[in-house]
Amino acid sequence: MSCAISVLMPVLNGDFTHLSEAINSILRQSFGDFEFLIVDDGSNQETKEFLADYAAKDARIIIITNPTNIGVGNSLNKGLEQASGRYVARHDADDVAHPERLAKQFAYMEAHPSIVLSCTTVNHIDMQGQNIGGYPVSTDSDLLEAELLLNSRLCHPSLMFRTKEIRDNGGYPVTKSAQDYLLYLKSLKAGFKFGGIDEPLVDYRINTESITRKNRGKQLSTAQAGSYQHVTRLVGEIDPQAFERFWFFVATQGQSTLRISDIKTLRPLLSYIQQHPAYYQAWKGSFRYVSRNALDLGFSIQKLMIAIYFRYFFNALY
To answer: Rounded to an integer, what distance in angstroms lies between the CA atom of residue 184 and that of residue 242?
Structure first.
């Protein structure tokens, strides 16, 4: 039976307190026309019984069981294949959706038929559920596209997308990390538009023990490779080693090494950013902050020249 929204959440064991909060936050949504697809990716028996108990109490919950662990990307695609909703709303097993999340995102998507994927502003919470900040989302499609040039500023558990479009485009890339960012790049390549709701509709838990944080190095490498492919589609071939140094310089906020010669080598990319208003708006502040932070971490003439370049010479060409 079809519905408006399929909420898609992968699970691999985890903390039952946080898992209960995550599940209950969906079941208590003000919007009622949804199914809740929980993909059990090879969890232990205790978790299986925990999920089965929830499913027995609420018919909206559908448990999809992987006999063995197949990974997040494959699990998300398995759920996507079975989704009957016009939209898929992503949710994670330790995050909390605000009661109006589905209603407000559904209304937004219905009112903006050209938008294929949308995200929202999120609150950050710690392991005890205390608010420790947040992260806003841009609302302009061109700016959202520009912000995806080098990494993702979108919170994956706040994502809602049109099921048919993403399914027909092959679903999630099957990688061991950075599935969200690679999905966004794949969507941009297909010409899909992004939208944003600048209202916190998800509490995103900062979990220091999460798989994402434990595999941070692999995630960065996967994201860098995806970004390189995306950039070369926009500006043509550029030196991969220089781009890798530049990418990690930005991603680590100046903690890795960038050479002065890399600035010249990456002129096609930097000129592209300067010449396009949305890209310049998206990245000028980041480049200036990162280069200044690198200088603060340890002085060198090379760092000083890079900071001066981004502070005084990296200006828009329009």
So the answer is: 24
The CA-CA-CA angle for residues 212, 213, 217, to 5°, reads 90
pLDDT of the residue at 209: 66
240-253 pLDDT per residue, tens? 999 999 999 999 99
- How many angstroms separate the CA atoms of 153 and 158, rounded? 12
C-alpha to C-alpha distance for 136 and 117, rounded to whole angstroms: 16
pTM above 0.85, yes or no: yes
Dist CA 41 CA 48 (whole Å): 10
Backbone phi, psi, residue 299, to 5°: -75, 140
Segment-wise mean pLDDT, segments of 10 residues, the chain, 318 residues: 96 95 98 98 97 98 97 97 98 97 98 98 96 95 98 97 98 95 98 98 86 74 98 98 98 97 97 97 97 96 97 88
Structure letter (DSSP) for residue 66: E
CA 67 and chain centroid, separation: 27
Query: For position 217, what pLDDT does the model report?
Result: 85
Domain range list for the chain: 3-213, 237-313
- Alpha carbon distance 135, 124 (integer Å): 8
Which tokens is 155 given? 């919170």
Side-chain half-sphere of 10: how many Cα atoms within 13 Å?
20
- Structural contact between residues 116 and 193, judged by C-beta atoms closer than 8 angstroms: yes
CA-CA-CA-CA torsion sign (16, 19, 25, 31) = negative
Can you give the pLDDT at residue 212?
53
CATH hierarchy code of domain 3-213: 3.90.550.10
Paired tokens of 182: 């690679």
